[in-house]
């Protein structure tokens, strides 16, 4: 049942090229310039009239929401706010009839996310669910939605659910951009093409498995770890840190790289592994200077870089090379080596990867 892998988590990591394809199958056709999902087509006016989009979720799904904030705002120019469902439900938030609330949940059973939806509905908002489990409570409670087609995710640490959530939300952003004319024709088509070939790139980046294993051997006894990224890769840094914490029990923090100098830089010494997501796109020069700041304080640098990069390589102790992708789609690629790294560290530490202590696959109590 683990398909020849030692753990479900590894199986699910390796399923990502296929399940991303399953998620966009029948919805995305780059040649024809089409991106459509029934739940959106049927409610397109709600999205186009929305004064803002509110995203509610927990854990990894909340990280997917953060990626979506960047993508939707950039592509479709609709203001987006992302909230932890547990905070949203108890803070008497302002919810308007013209708000579209997107609830993201792999299981579709998370109690706080469910409560956030109910509150949004009571206040007249339109609720759109992005769930993996078909027929789950959240998918039933939402007015409309789009399923991720990741298949059953057994490992408690979410992997393929995250990348398929990002796939759905990127398609949503592209669909709205098309309707609103907020992306140029050429950009729109370029993103469609790129999204269609993302599974190939994910396949390619899975070949970093060996190098991540080597890196894991070096850092398996660390007690702390920092993950840094900027822009689209800031949420990926948060997700990388969460993955390490939950399965290896190593304390890890994710930060937007530029926030380092507002505090966390004090933690850096020669014992501190710092994982920096530094692809060639986006804020490359800025992240290079952040890496220099870490280097001058003797931190150990593990960098995720675009293939062929030399500048970051020179500054780093270890590099993990990934294929080139545009900035907005890069989380689908950059997140993969971080999943692998956590996996190998957890295995080397003898942890129960699929069933980490104190955690449940779906959190049905608040
Ligand atoms: O089923 P959900 O997506 O609503 O679950 C939300 C979180 O409980 C979940 O993502 C959790 O953070 C994972 N264990 C992370 O790997």
UniProtKB/TrEMBL annotation:
<feature type="active site" description="For Fru-6P isomerization activity">
    <location>
        <position position="361"/>
    </location>
</feature>
<dbReference type="GO" id="GO:0005975">
    <property type="term" value="P:carbohydrate metabolic process"/>
</dbReference>
<dbReference type="GO" id="GO:0006487">
    <property type="term" value="P:protein N-linked glycosylation"/>
</dbReference>
<dbReference type="GO" id="GO:0097367">
    <property type="term" value="F:carbohydrate derivative binding"/>
</dbReference>
<feature type="domain" description="SIS">
    <location>
        <begin position="43"/>
        <end position="182"/>
    </location>
</feature>
<keyword id="KW-0032">Aminotransferase</keyword>
<dbReference type="GO" id="GO:0005829">
    <property type="term" value="C:cytosol"/>
</dbReference>
<comment type="subunit">
    <text>Homodimer.</text>
</comment>
<dbReference type="GO" id="GO:0006047">
    <property type="term" value="P:UDP-N-acetylglucosamine metabolic process"/>
</dbReference>
<feature type="domain" description="SIS">
    <location>
        <begin position="215"/>
        <end position="356"/>
    </location>
</feature>
<comment type="function">
    <text>Catalyzes the first step in hexosamine metabolism, converting fructose-6P into glucosamine-6P using glutamine as a nitrogen source.</text>
</comment>
<keyword id="KW-0963">Cytoplasm</keyword>
<keyword id="KW-0808">Transferase</keyword>
<keyword id="KW-0315">Glutamine amidotransferase</keyword>
<dbReference type="GO" id="GO:0004360">
    <property type="term" value="F:glutamine-fructose-6-phosphate transaminase (isomerizing) activity"/>
</dbReference>
<protein>
    <recommendedName>
        <fullName>Glutamine--fructose-6-phosphate aminotransferase [isomerizing]</fullName>
        <ecNumber>2.6.1.16</ecNumber>
    </recommendedName>
</protein>
<dbReference type="GO" id="GO:0006002">
    <property type="term" value="P:fructose 6-phosphate metabolic process"/>
</dbReference>
<keyword id="KW-0677">Repeat</keyword>
């Amino acid at each position: 049942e683990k398909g020849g892998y030692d753990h479900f988590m590894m199986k699910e990591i390796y399923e990502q090229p296929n399940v991303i394809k399953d998620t966009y199958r029948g919805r995305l056709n780059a040649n024809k310039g089409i991106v459509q999902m029934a739940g959106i087509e049927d409610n397109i006016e709600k999205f186009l009239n929305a004064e803002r989009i509110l995203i509610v979720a927990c854990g990894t799904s909340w990280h997917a929401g953060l990626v979506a904030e960047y993508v939707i705002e950039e592509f479709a120019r609709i203001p987006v706010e992302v909230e932890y469902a547990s905070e949203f439900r108890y803070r008497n938030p302002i919810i308007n009839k013209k708000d579209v609330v997107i609830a993201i949940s792999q299981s579709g059973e998370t109690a706080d996310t469910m409560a956030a939806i109910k509150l949004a509905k009571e206040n007249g908002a339109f609720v759109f669910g992005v769930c993996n489990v078909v027929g789950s409570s959240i998918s039933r409670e939402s007015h409309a939605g789009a399923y991720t087609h990741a298949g059953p995710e057994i490992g408690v640490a979410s992997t393929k659910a995250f990348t398929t959530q990002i796939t759905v939300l990127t398609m949503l952003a592209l669909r709205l951009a098309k309707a609103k004319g907020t992306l140029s024709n050429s950009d729109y088509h370029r993103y469609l093409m790129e999204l269609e070939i993302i599974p190939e790139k994910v396949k390619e980046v899975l070949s970093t498995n060996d190098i991540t294993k080597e890196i894991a051997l070096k850092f398996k006894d660390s007690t702390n770890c920092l993950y840094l990224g900027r822009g689209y890769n800031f949420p990926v840094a948060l997700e990388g840190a969460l993955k390490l914490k939950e399965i290896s029990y190593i304390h890890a923090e994710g930060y937007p790289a530029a926030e380092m100098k507002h505090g966390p830089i004090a933690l850096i010494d020669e014992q501190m592994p710092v994982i920096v997501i530094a692809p060639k796109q986006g804020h490359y020069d800025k992240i290079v200077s952040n890496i220099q700041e870490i280097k001058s304080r003797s931190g150990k640098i593990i960098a995720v870089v675009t293939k062929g990069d030399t500048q970051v390589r020179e500054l780093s102790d270890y590099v993990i090379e990934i294929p080139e992708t545009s900035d907005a789609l890069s989380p689908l690629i950059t997140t993969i080596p971080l999943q692998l790294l956590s996996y190998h560290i957890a295995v080397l530490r003898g942890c129960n990867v699929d069933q980490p202590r104190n955690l449940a696959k779906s959190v049905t109590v608040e």
